[in-house]
Write a structure and sequence with these properties.
three-stranded antiparallel beta sheet, two-stranded parallel sheet, 2 helices
């Protein structure tokens, strides 16, 4: 059995972890960190433990999906040609979450990736 830090901030005097995160990460950096975490989660014979404030818990699952943009108020929604929210240029919201435990060890909370990233980027462990 071995354990190692997978994701954290860069700490002076220590080798960087495989996934370096920072409070100053760009959207592309946050995306890359998610993809690396997802790849690590998918490896056989391994598990991921997340450090919350004063609590550690397993990451039981990861999920992501695209949420279509909300319809624009006051605009007819009878087709793409009349609803700007359904145009190709409309922003699709990408949702990313991890299933873990905020208290105890049962998988009870789907936590947004943005929150996980903030937690990781505030912890030098």
């Amino acid at each position: 059995l071995t354990a190692r830090t997978l994701a954290s901030v860069r700490v002076r005097g220590h080798a960087p972890p495989p996934i370096v995160v920072s409070k100053r990460d760009s959207d592309a950096d946050v995306e890359a960190a998610w993809l690396a975490l997802r790849a690590a989660f998918s490896r056989e014979r391994s598990c991921l433990i997340l450090h919350h404030r004063n609590h550690y818990s397993l990451i039981f699952a990861m999920r992501e999906w695209n949420r279509p943009p909300a319809p624009v108020a006051g605009v007819a929604s009878d087709g793409p040609e009349t609803n700007p929210a359904s145009s190709p240029s409309a922003t699709v919201e990408r949702k990313r979450q991890v299933l873990t435990a905020r208290k105890g060890q049962r998988p009870t909370a789907w936590i947004e990736w943005a929150e996980v990233h903030r937690t990781l980027s505030a912890w030098a462990g």
